[in-house]
Specification:
With 231 residues, the protein is an alpha/beta fold. The protein has eleven helices and seven strands. It has a seven-stranded mixed β-sheet with strand order 3-4-2-5-1-6-7, with helices on both faces. α2 packs across α3.
């Protein structure tokens, strides 16, 4: 749950604001499916990406990170979209200091950690926008960052840029334990999904699953019947 403080957010963190809603229940279902996919395996780093911009990956990554924290895990959410970061808006935090301060200026982990306002969830925002995001994400310093955070947290969730836009997500998919792909109903083109499949295969990513976002349920769907609410 959120700590007792006055917090406002630029994006809808429905897993907190409306925990009994259909959407919140679907987020918990995604959490359960991720846990099932990680069963009997040591998965500590998860990458969230999408085929293209505007498919909701950042909002989903934030809500699912909160969901895991609500489940009693110690979670770190990292804004690894070093081109168009959003997590500072989502949690109403300054963008700097952040990940790029650590990668470019040798700041320590404790220097860039932020209190997300959620019990069990720490946050790392982007930091100053760099001129060479792909090089930073593939650097030795980034690999050392992985090693350090893995020793501290139960789960680290990375929000990365879309796969078909730049190479950043492909670099992270190669070093993260699992990748979750977000697609948007009515937006994602089938041809792009095939391209993404090729990119993920080339990067040796372990895809845990695909989330179809913004799919509108019919009013007679069993979710409505069971939960007795409308959204």
């Amino acid at each position: 749950m959120f700590k007792k403080k006055n917090m406002q957010h630029g994006r809808k963190l429905v897993i907190f604001t409306n925990r009994k809603s259909i959407v919140a229940e679907q987020i918990r279902t995604v959490r359960a499916n991720i846990k099932f996919a990680m069963k009997d395996k040591q998965y500590k780093t998860l990458l969230f990406t999408s085929t293209s911009i505007g498919e909701g990956k950042s909002t989903l990554a934030s809500n699912i990170a909160i969901s895991f924290a609500q489940d009693g895990q110690k979670v770190l959410l990292v804004d690894a979209d070093l081109r168009k970061p959003t997590m500072h808006y989502t949690f109403n935090k300054p963008v700097s200091p952040g990940l790029t301060n650590l990668l470019m200026s040798n700041w320590s982990l404790s220097d860039i950690l932020k209190d997300s306002g959620v019990i069990g969830l720490d946050l790392i925002t982007c930091g100053p926008i760099p001129s060479n995001p792909a090089e930073l994400l593939g650097s030795l310093t980034m690999k050392n960052f992985f090693k350090e955070t893995i020793s501290i947290y139960d789960l680290i969730i990375f929000d990365a840029p879309p796969l078909l836009s730049v190479a950043d997500a492909q670099i992270l998919a190669d070093i993260c334990d699992g990748t979750v792909l977000v697609t948007s109903s009515g937006i994602t083109e089938k041809k792009n999904l095939y391209k993404v499949k090729e990119v993920l295969e080339a990067s040796n990513a372990h895809v845990l699953g695909i989330i179809l976002n913004r799919f509108k349920l019919e009013k007679n769907h069993y979710y409505y019947e069971y939960y007795g609410e409308k959204e």
